[in-house]
Amino acid sequence: MPNPLHLFVDISSHGFGHLAITAPVLNTLAEIVPNYRLTIRTRLPASKLRQRIGVPFTLIEERTDFGYVMLDATRIDRPASAAAYRQAHADWPASVATEAAWLSQLKPDLVLTNVSYLPLAGAAAAGIPALSLCSLNWADLFAHFFADEPWAAAIHAEMLAAYRAAKVFLRVTPGMPMDSLGNVRAIGPIAALGQKHDLGLGGDRAVLVAMGGIAHHLPVDQWPRRPGLRWLVAANWQCHHPDALTVESFGLSFTDLLCSVDAIITKPGYGTFTEAAANGTPVLYQRREDWPEQDCLIDWLAGHAPSLEIAAGRLADGQLAEALSALWQQPRPPRPAVGGARQAAEMIVALGARPG
Question: Has this prediction a pTM greater than 0.85?
Answer without folding.
Answer: yes
